[in-house]
Amino acid sequence: MKFSAKALYGLRASFVLGQNFGKVALSVSRLSALAGVSPAYLEKIMHTLKKDGIVTSQMGSSGGYVLSRPPPQISIGEILTSLEGDLFLSSCVANDCKSKNCPNKNIFEIIYFSINDVLSRLTLQQMMDEYINGNKNQKSPTEVSSRATGRIPIKEKKL
Length: 159
Description:
Elements: H1 5-19, H2 28-35, H3 39-51, E1 55-58, E2 64-67, H4 76-84, H5 104-121, H6 124-133, H7 141-149
Antiparallel strand pairs: 1-2
């Protein structure tokens, strides 16, 4: 599974807005500079996030974009789904499978629901906290996953 540039840039822009939540609205040009995204492309991304209620815009000389809710109330899944649409892994999950006896359907559904479960639990605030603390406490992928989902980490096999 690979996310598009639109999703990655949108997540980055949301992160910047999260860092500025409750402080000031950010113009497209300022947000573009902070997020490292071209202003024209960022404007399209922000339009989508605004349409889906993740950000709002403020008019006037000190206008710009702000998050519509505090970072702990916005999930990473909400942002990614806004920008990518449904995160189907394969046609099997989307019920477009051509085979009536496809052995992949059940496993892809498990993967799909697991990914969506994690993404719906991870918040923008957690992303911001992880970024700040990331270099201090490097975690293995299983530790990060268990912390996000509240599940016990799977012990990795040594080869």
